[in-house]
Automatic annotation (TrEMBL):
Family: Belongs to the glucose-6-phosphate 1-epimerase family.
EC class of the enzyme, as a word: isomerase
Keywords: Isomerase
Organism of derivation: Mucisphaera calidilacus
CDD domains per the UniProt record, alphabetical: D-hex-6-P-epi_like
InterPro entries: Aldose_1/G6P_1-epimerase (IPR008183), G6P_1-epimerase (IPR025532), Gal_mutarotase_sf_dom (IPR011013), GH-type_carb-bd (IPR014718)
EC number(s) recorded for this UniProt protein: 5.1.3.15
Record: active site: H146, E250
Highest rank taxon of the organism: Bacteria
Catalysed transformations (reactions): alpha-D-glucose 6-phosphate = beta-D-glucose 6-phosphate
Protein name: Putative glucose-6-phosphate 1-epimerase
Length: 276
């Protein structure tokens, strides 16, 4: 592994082994790239992404914590929480059974947060939160790994695994609906928070002729998002045509699935990406 100067001069940890290559920016502990051997990058990073302190990176795997989306009561607070816009501490990299794991930490009040990325047969990601406060205290938080998956053409992509699952439709004021038996298809903006599901999702990409599985553990919510044309145009750090090239499948604990942690307790939420 190596610590290199990445885009915008930001420090990036680069992991290389027989399984492939992965890179993680210390900024937001954002995974920027995951290239299994003989595969194109599984992740999408915007060609117009901004790489600078205090700015969220458009793409890869931003970490949403301690809230998802806009803050519940204070509209002045940043979208998707506070930790994706700050540099995390690099604890170190260790090797085990041919896999490389990098560990990064940060702190949010009484919550100590650690993020581990493992480059092995899959790309493993694990977010651990510990409540270090005084006994009797408790904190409620949301969290999500906001994974941008690269696709050849979103119009032909489908997502399976969420059939018959309830979701909040972000395009209709978080109206509660249920996914039918059909896979998710993309014919316009899609922005749904699926709830109470531990299911593995699979993104099927006929253009790249591959499927990407998103397994998860300790996560009860899955968000599926594509901005489509209008929203992509409104996002300054996304090229106007970029909506065609990614689908976000985000594993987390959101809304009804928010986490309550008492002093001394730990929570672990993990996801693993694999190409099939
Ligand atoms: O995960 C979907 C979502 O909440 C969308 O509503 C959209 O806002 C997206 O996240 C990107 O949010 P960001 O704050 O990174 O622009």
């Amino acid at each position: 592994y190596s610590l290199i100067e990445g885009p915008g001069g930001l420090p990036v940890v680069s992991l290389v082994n027989d399984h492939g290559v992965a890179s993680i920016a210390l900024q937001g502990a954002t995974v920027l790239s995951y290239r299994p051997s003989d595969e194109a990058d599984v992740l999408y990073v915007s060609e117009s992404a901004v790489f600078s302190d205090g700015q969220p990176i458009r793409g890869g795997v931003p970490i949403c914590f301690p809230w998802f989306g806009s803050h519940g009561t204070d509209a002045g607070k940043p979208s998707h929480g506070t930790v994706r816009t700050r540099a995390w501490e690099l604890v170190g990299v260790h090797e085990h059974n041919g896999a490389l794991t990098v560990r990064l930490t940060t702190r949010e009040g009484v919550l100590a947060v650690a993020f581990e990325v493992t480059l092995g047969p899959r790309l493993g990601m694990s977010l651990e939160v510990e409540h270090t406060g005084r006994s009797g205290e408790s904190e409620v938080f949301e969290a999500a790994l906001h994974t941008y998956l690269s696709v050849g053409d979103v119009s032909g992509a489908t997502v399976t695994g969420l059939e018959q699952t309830d979701y909040l439709d972000q395009l209709e004021g978080r109206r509660r609906l249920t996914q039918g038996d059909d896979p998710i298809v993309f014919e316009g903006e899609v922005d749904r928070i699926y709830l109470n599901t531990s299911a593995t999702c699979v993104l099927h990409d006929p253009v790249f002729e591959r499927s990407v599985a998103v397994d998860k553990d300790g996560s009860r919510s899955t968000v599926v998002w594509n901005p489509w044309i209008e929203k992509a145009r409104r996002l300054a750090d996304l090229p106007d045509d970029a909506w065609q090239r990614f689908v976000c499948i985000e594993t987390g604990n959101i809304a009804d699935n928010a986490v309550t942690l008492r002093a001394g307790e730990r929570h672990r939420m993990a996801a693993a990406l694999s190409v099939q």
